[in-house]
Amino acid sequence: xxxxxxxSSSDSDDGSIMPIDKTHQSSTPQTAxxxxxxxxxxKVQVTKNNPEYDPVVVSFPRGVPSSLADEGSSNxxxxxxxxxxxxxxxxxxxxxxxxxxxxDASETCTYTATASGRGHDGRLTKLHVVVYDKKLSTWKVIxxxxxxxxxxxxxxxxxxxxxxxxxxxxxxxxxxxxSGAMKASERVQLLVESFGSKKKQRVMASRAANMVNINSxxxxxxxxxxxxxxxxxxxxxxxKEAMVKDGKDFGALSANEIALMxxxxxxxxxxxxxxxxxxxxxDAQQIAGPESWKRCSQVVDKILKxxxxxxxxxxxxxxxxKDNVPQSVMTLISSINPNKRGNSYRLKAAxxxxxxxxxxxxxxxxxxxxxxxxxxxxxxIRLPHEVGTHxxxxxxxxxxxxxxxxxxxxxxxxxxxxxxxxILYVIASDASKEMKLSSINQFCKDIKLDDKKAAMLLREAGxxxxxxxxxxxxxxxxxxxxxxxxxxxxxx
Length: 492
Hints:
This protein has about 500 residues and is of the alpha+beta class. It has helices spanning about 65-70, 145-150, 185-195, 200-210, 225-230, 235-245, 255-265, 285-290, 290-310, 315-320, 325-335, 345-365, 375-380, 385-395, 410-430, 440-445, 450-460, and strands spanning about 1-5, 15-25, 40-45, 55-60, 85-90, 100-105, 110-115, 125-135, 140-145, 150, 155, 370, 395-400, 405-410, 435, 465, 475. A hairpin with a 7-residue loop joins strand 13 and strand 14 (about 405-410). Helix 9 (about 290-310) runs antiparallel to helix 14, helix 12 packs antiparallel against helix 15 and helix 13 crosses helix 14. The longest helix has 22 residues, at about 345-365.
């Protein structure tokens, strides 16, 4: 028998047999007898979900172990180093969630993975294992465990304890023979390795990894100067293409100019600094991304078509309960006439802005969102899958090494999210294509942002910001785009 995994669907879930006729051309010369086509009948059997017998699909993110990779090789002589797995419940009092634990025969490595269990599954494709029996001419389609979850195995070495390197706190080198008295830092390291918790051991390992060699300090070696001089060769391909497009020679830029340009690209939304009009510098469609913008367009077009047919309020159909909508967004969308030419773009930009504000409201409460998988986190924020995936990708990072799994937003990513919100609000409010606003006070209040910080972020994006005599903060963008000069840090 041979097995393979595939995505399949069938109208029969009761284990019925469905014959499929396939025609194969004979490889022998065609004669009066051999030239005829031969029909091969294959029966397909689709089995029901059975948690006790459904196959478990695993992956090895760190690479397939050599004992498994060489299993089918003719040169393989080690038949005793196989991996045995134990499949059990994640919680004893709950049927949802499974744990997979494996260990090789030599008890050198362990492999672990968990699945929290899905409350519902809206995916359009399912993962099945197909077994083909040549003798019986049957295909057996078996749904995989946990509704098609692929268990990503985390490999760990059993009883591995790092040692302190001679002369420092480096990890993994071992103590040199004949060394003198141990340093205080080495004693702390050994005590933590022997009696400390896993968390404390990770902290000590992180400290060792962050130690700076004295030769890497400016004024105490040539390593740092050589690194600065060679930064021109290490620019990302995307930044190289952007500079070539702008007619700049990236080899002629200084290290400070390169660092400043990369920092702006990382913080700001996509922009065109050669645009000849203010409304062409920032584009809501580029900010949202192709998949998110397509999804927002589908929702807005469907709601508008429905409201026109039923003569209903499109705002309530689009945003739901008006009491839960921020005042600035409600005022903005109410001012947009959907029947006016050119307002469809503004309405879609305003709807995407509203979704980003909901994401901002959720993640601002604790600074992170917990969940075993990205799908679990998307269920928490309740956003369209395409939009939520894009926002998690650009505004968060995966939490590693903690007690909880999920996604966290750092201080820099929070400033980036606020920058996107402010620029999207200006784009959606720009009816005259001049990228001007008389007041951003109410919007800053809705996203709980200080007015002065909002003004600072907008200035970094190239806006001119001014406070009126009535206390309203207004902003305007002009073309060509000009960024403020870099700020120098205070001398210590």
